[in-house]
Amino acid sequence: MNAAQVWRRLSGRSQSAKPPRVGGIVTESGPDAGPDDSHGIILYLEDITVSFDGFRALNALTLYIQTGELRCIIGPNGAGKTTMMDVITGKTRPDSGSAWFGQTLDLLSLNEPEIARSGIGRKFQKPTVFEQHNVYENLQLAAAGDKTPWATLFKPLSGTQRERIDSVLETVRLTDRRAARAGALSHGQKQWLEIGMLLMQEPQLLLVDEPVAGMTPQETERTAELLTSLAGQHSVVVVEHDMNFVRSIAKKVTVLHEGSVLAEGTMDEVQNNRRVIEVYLGE
Ligand code: ADP
Ligand code: MG
User: Fold this and answer.
1) Largest CA-CA distance found in the chain, in angstroms, rounded
2) Nearest ligand to the CA atom of 258
3) Where on the phi/psi map is residue 265: left (φ > 0), alpha (ψ -120 to 50), or beta?
4) What is the three-class DSSP state of 79?
5) Is the CB of 31 under 6 A from ligand 1?
6) What is the layout of strands, in order, in the sheet containing 105-106?
7) Cβ of 52 less than 6 Å from ligand 1
8) What are 16-34's pLDDT values in tens digits?
9) Which residue ranges make up each domain of the chain?
10) Any idea which ligand is nearest the CA of 77?
11) pLDDT tens-digit profile of 57-104?
12) Homologous superfamily of 34-281 in CATH?
């Protein structure tokens, strides 16, 4: 039995599931086993409070994300959106509250790399691609994860790896740019490549911070299609300021204000919410 088979047996995953990207002890409840979302909820944040010098960036924040949903988080500057992502990814530890990935992974007991390995991918605002390498190599490097990346470029790819890269290239619509140097891509294409690099690691939950900042209208539209297409297979949480963009992709919107949920519902519901209107008018 090879490592992949062992892992599949232990984690009860299907044939298509992939082994953990780095070595480490594989257990049913360990971070590498991935979340148990059998109750239909992939992320539980409950009563999360984060203080910076007495100032509450998050104030008893409670939020649930369902498996496969595309959730948009909006809110004025300083509402706590980035801090919320920092808590989910282990970059910031809350003073109190609980954060669970599925029912069995206590995010507050895992460090940043463990959280990433457990299946939470985060896309930061600024694209971080390997500029000197071509698009295809970037995806190859991303698949290697924490392993010595450069060696992976010289190793022949397995059929499965090639298929995976081809499928991600299709998803992010960069198939015809596969041989282009990443540094030569447009801003929008770099953002899609970085989303592709996250997808190579097959995250169940994708956190995306302001994906369309600086994009052209066409790029914005394509990004809307891309994120919409990822929902279902992945759970996607998008923080974004561009309201037209949010309107174009949103099913359910959460409005944060002063570190708590101010309103939640469809875009129409939150836009007509009196408290939301007051907060945005006062900005
Ligand atoms: P958003 O992303 O919604 O604009 P943030 O989560 O970045 O909001 O910030 C929430 C609040 O917490 C802001 O008032 C910000 O100044 C404060 N804050 C964030 N990070 C820190 C930090 N490391 N130290 C002190 N204050 C911080
Ligand atoms: Mg922010």
Assistant:
1) 62
2) 1
3) left
4) coil
5) no
6) 55-66, 41-52, 96-101, 105-106
7) yes
8) 333 333 333 333 444 566 7
9) 34-281
10) 1
11) 999 999 999 999 999 999 999 999 999 999 999 999 999 999 999 999
12) P-loop containing nucleotide triphosphate hydrolases (3.40.50.300)
